[in-house]
């Protein structure tokens, strides 16, 4: 699905299929990690008033979720898992307080070793899904045409596009956040991959039968 698609029903359907797409990937622990990231972590962070923050363990689980849902890069997990607890707490507190100034919030988080703009975006999305979407490969391709430039500058362009799309879709009556838009784009992209893979398998099977 392309970002310019204006059919709200298609967006709602893609979003509603997100959980089943997660399950269909059949990756170890992804279902439980996704439940932690999408359902548990936001509440945990917000319960820490007046100074919301994340811990090193939570950042490590978030990184496991990000790498399992996307591309596995074990060194990043090693980096964040060894971060000092107070350093993570301080950086995340400053980042959350910086919102809605996304540029400053990302900068506060990327001082942490192993945390680039994409991981920082996942942290912000867990706290403020109505402001900052996760910078996933699939959504980047749909919104910007590529997923190779993981920079703050590129993320800010990405945010603008997903915020605008969320506003457009919400005008139809159903509340969409930028994070909803990201998950719908991801869900649609995963479906397309499965369809392409299935078609390839079918063609290969037919060729074998002809032999």
UniProtKB/TrEMBL annotation:
Top-level taxon in the UniProt lineage: Eukaryota
Protein name as annotated: HhH-GPD domain-containing protein
């Amino acid at each position: 699905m392309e970002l310019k698609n204006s059919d709200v029903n298609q967006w709602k359907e893609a979003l509603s299929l997100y959980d089943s797409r997660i399950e269909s990937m059949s990756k170890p622990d992804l279902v439980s990690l996704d439940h932690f990231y999408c359902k548990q972590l936001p509440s945990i962070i917000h319960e820490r008033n007046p100074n919301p923050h994340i811990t090193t363990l939570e950042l490590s689980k978030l990184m496991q979720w990000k790498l399992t849902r996307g591309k596995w890069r074990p060194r990043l997990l090693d980096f964040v898992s060894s971060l000092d607890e107070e350093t993570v707490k301080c950086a995340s507190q400053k980042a959350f307080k910086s919102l809605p100034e996304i540029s400053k919030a990302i900068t506060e988080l990327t001082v942490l070793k192993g945390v680039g703009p994409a991981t920082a975006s996942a942290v912000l999305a867990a706290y403020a899904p109505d402001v900052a979407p996760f910078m996933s490969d699939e959504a980047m391709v749909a919104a910007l045409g590529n997923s190779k430039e993981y920079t703050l500058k590129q993320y800010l362009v990405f945010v603008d596009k997903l915020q605008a799309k969320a506003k457009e879709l919400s005008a139809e009556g159903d509340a969409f956040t930028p994070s909803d838009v990201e998950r719908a784009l991801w869900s649609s992209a995963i479906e397309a991959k499965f369809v392409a893979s299935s078609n390839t398998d079918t063609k290969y099977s037919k060729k074998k039968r002809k032999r």
